[in-house]
User: Fold these one by one.
Assistant:
Number 1:
Amino acid sequence: PAPKDDAGRRTYELDRAHVFHSWSAQAALDPMVVTRSEGSYLWDADGARYLDFSGQLVYTNVGHQHPRVVKAIQDQAATLCTIAPAHANDKRALAAKLITDRAPEGMNKVFFTNGGADAVEHAVRMARLHTGRYKVLTQYRGYHGGTHLTINMSGDHRRWPNDNGTAGTVHFWGPFLYRSAFHATTEAEECERALEHLEQLIRFEGPESFAALVLETVAGTSGVMPPPPGYLQGVREICDRYGIVYVADEVMVGFGRTGTWFAVEQHGVTPDLITFAKGVNSGYVPLGGVIIGDHIAETFAHRVYPGGLTYSGHPLATAAAVATIEAMADEKIVENAAEIGRTVLGPGLRALAERHPSIGEVRGVGAFWALDLVTDRETKEPLAPYGGSSPAIQAVLAEAKAQGLLVFTNYHRIHLAPPLNVTEAEVKDALTALDVALAHADAVYTG
Ligand code: PLP
């Protein structure tokens, strides 16, 4: 509903009249007017305060309005608002160094983009030029962006209305024991069968047709599914065997979300390319990019890379990245994400699962968690259909909001993506709100 506050209502009416929103039927929208934010909280136009565990779109890694990042943007604006990509600039150069310092060994260059989808687009372009091949492997239950290529690469229902089958993408099943595509009963079995399936698929599609395999290190929007031990190493080996460029899409999980700077660190693998965006500067100014392995950078040492963007490495965005990364390092924000997940958020969600039968599974790592909500634990019937919603999940979300908690949601799932510097007290408040909200899911439980 429109806010009661006059200025808030005016914003609401202008938005409804003129703003065309993403992924939505426009007539059905009812956006919340947000007027300010700080740390883990934001406020609506009528002054109600919300604990923001949505991360907006899982990107506010240092929380809202971090003073160091805000000041860095202000200072940069006062000095050099913009400069074309061809010039060198102190913040762009330093951001690239700070990013590559945290990437695996042998990845020393960054190509900056404006966000995640164009990072993935450029990673694929690099892989195609590097290999001289065209096709791209991606997994079902994955998301890589909203552009023509990246939506075709995505393995969720948003591809369907955009699919024209020409982008050269082939989908495979990744490991996901809770809803196993392989009838596996253990993580080890799931891992082994998923790798076998991937290799078979490559053999039958033509191993020499694939330029790249693009994989979210922890699939995010599709359900927060940390891969079993050994899976990513297996993927690395398969890519090596068939000369396929391994692109780790860390747009959602990079910069500490899972409790390490990059999630690949926890799996001991070095991809050929890493895509990032979101958390690199907490989304304060649009920024993304590709971290490039030395052997691929070498391909373009004496050969033109045929790609670019007007705002590649924009000074306001890269100044925000420098301040974000330095604040994260100085304030031990990545360590906090790991610790809060291990000691408070993970155990707290598991305790909720003991009280609420509608929680089919709790999954996650660091400051990145999902509740897989079901109407029956035996059949694992989701609380909302694939690609859709249901009155029950809507009731859970509405109650969470009434309790002052914002979460990220996808189909039948609730995702928790708090700022990585969230406090224990804030996590406990969120758990209390969820405890109340989940009664609406339990109410339709039939198991
Ligand atoms: N890749 C992953 C893993 C994502 O989660 C997203 C966005 O959610 C993207 C790519 C696309 O990023 P953007 O929306 O910045 O284009």
Note: The mean pLDDT is 97.
Number 2:
Amino acid sequence: AIDASLLAQTAAHTPAHTPAMDAFWMPFTASRQFKSAPRLLAKAKDMHFWTPEGRQILDGIAGLWCVNAGHARPKIVEAVQKQVAELDYAPPFNMAHPKSFELAERLIQITPAGLNRVFFTNSGSESVDTALKMAVAYHRARGQGTRTRFIGRERGYHGVNFGGISVGGIVGNRKTFGPMLTGVDHLRHTYDPARNGYSRGVPLHGGPELAEDLERIVALHDASTIAAVIVEPVAGSTGVVLPPEGYLQRLREICDKHGILLIFDEVITGFGRLGAPFGATRFGVTPDLMTTAKGISNGTVPMGAVFARQAIHETLTNVDSAPHVIEFAHGYTYSGHPLACAAALATLDTYAEEGLLTRGAELESYFADALHALKGLPHVIDIRNIGLVGAVELAPLAGLPGKRAFDVFLQCFDLGVLVRTTGDTIAMSPPLIISKAQIDQLVGTLADVLKRG
Ligand code: PMP
């Protein structure tokens, strides 16, 4: 049970909103609610944040699914400090710095075989738009310029740039922004609590049949018009929605049959989240392009990367033009930024030294046991998990979708635990260094809040 005096005491520590806070237009924020009770984080170490008043918060979501090795890891801190003093910036067009090559080389040692060309970006959204452009350019370079259509999926989240929201399947992120990319269709999502409710790990039902949506879309538009399919191996931001058994395999088969590229958006699922280096590794299905960000640099310095099959890279770079001509007209001022590369190299060291890319597999059943013990608590309608990511879905309050989960998030924060809400689902994706005792604290605090009804 929760000590009411503790709750009152922590609430009293919440700083009041001040006029100085008005200039900052906060991203994806219920800002009226925030202004009424700002939540500030001033410090972080390993599994914890601290508020400006010194209140300790257990980080149950690895920042925002990104700080996979935990906060302020010494090797990463040191590497970034050293790098900023040595080479703060280097232009990435027609030149480079050694760490960008070193990092690319290190990364392809842990990606699925075949994905051995790396293009650096600064975020997941940029990785997604980069991959979409690569897909269209690849087909065009092979004389198949009619292949311009993309197929995304309902409930897909692929960042917030125009390409990403076009292939993404979240109505709220699309509806106020006018026309999207043209020629985009969506597969159905794989959320099916009626058949797959309370599944531990991969759900059993409906995989191949849901993947057949792709055949129906191909029949409608003809394969010769379709560039790529993009899906998250596990949809994170829309409530941890897993691919049922056989689903990704069947998508791969249909793509191969029709010459359509398969893009996995592994911004969340990459770098150990599912108990394997990547979702592709975990599910044994290799895409043609793979988008990443977040865990690549442990969230320390913004970075993203797109991994491509060698054939795609070759097609786009072996062009018949004078040597001084740029082959692929795409890139960012901060592609392969020296600080991001230094952070990522030290991150990879930390992952390797501590076995973090597979630690989620070791903890999966402990985490699953803890989560699934919440079944039967008030308003809980589904629980889903894989590796070190899990979700508890609540029945929405009548007329106020998202409110119940948001209130749970606020109460957990007051009790010193950070979880994430998406719709009426509570998501958890702790740093991969979490201990069993901390899993107990994370899930136990959520249980205490849920028991209040
Ligand atoms: N794709 C996926 C699957 C994501 O989960 C996210 C972010 N949560 C993005 C893309 C966008 O990443 P960013 O916010 O770094 O642009």
Note: Residues 5-10 have pLDDT under 50 and may be disordered.
